[in-house]
Design a protein that fits this description.
elongated, single chain, 44% helix, 167 residues, three-stranded mixed beta sheet, mainly alpha
Length: 167
């Protein structure tokens, strides 16, 4: 009697642990940003006289059994972009979207079925998206860094159309 209930909030990076705590508290006590690694240490947050929540940094398995698991986490933003090549991750995203949701890829970037079907390599889809979005440098060359940033940011921030990369 008289003791506070203490609950630890745990999960992978960038899934909304701190946002959840702020929602429960009805204030912005936990720092929140739309990128992994914002919560650097454990922090107790008092909700009321009977409840405390422990905000924790995201945790990941030290090694994934399958490469595709790590790639999907990178695509969704659960890992820091600085640990992998962002262009490689964006090309992977194009490949996964072509395989599991080609209609979304075509609609979002105004790509015809014929254009998509003509892409024999995943990198060609990435290039096509860059051209369709006008992300060109001098000489008509696609700006790969801007294209990768745009693709990943749009995919990660898409709230209306939930999509899973695991099929």
């Amino acid at each position: 009697v008289g003791k506070k209930l203490r609950i630890m909030i745990v999960g992978i990076p960038n899934v909304g642990k701190s946002s959840f705590i702020n929602k429960i508290c009805k204030t912005k006590r936990a720092k929140v940003e739309d990128r992994p690694g914002v919560t650097r240490g454990k922090q107790w947050v008092t909700v009321d006289s009977a409840l405390q929540l422990l905000d924790t940094p995201g945790i990941l398995w030290p090694k994934f059994e399958e490469k595709v698991v790590g790639e999907n986490l990178a695509i969704t933003g659960a890992t820091k972009d600085s640990i992998l090549d962002i262009e490689y991750i964006a090309v992977l995203l194009c490949s996964r979207l072509k395989a599991i949701a080609p209609e979304l890829l075509m609609a979002r970037y105004k790509i015809t079925k014929e254009e998509l079907d003509s892409c024999e390599m995943d990198y060609e889809i990435f290039e096509l998206v860059g051209r369709k979005r006008g992300l060109l440098m001098s000489g008509g060359v696609v700006n790969h860094e801007r294209c990768a940033d745009m693709l990943l940011e749009e995919f990660r921030s898409e709230k209306k159309k939930k999509i899973t990369l695991e099929v």
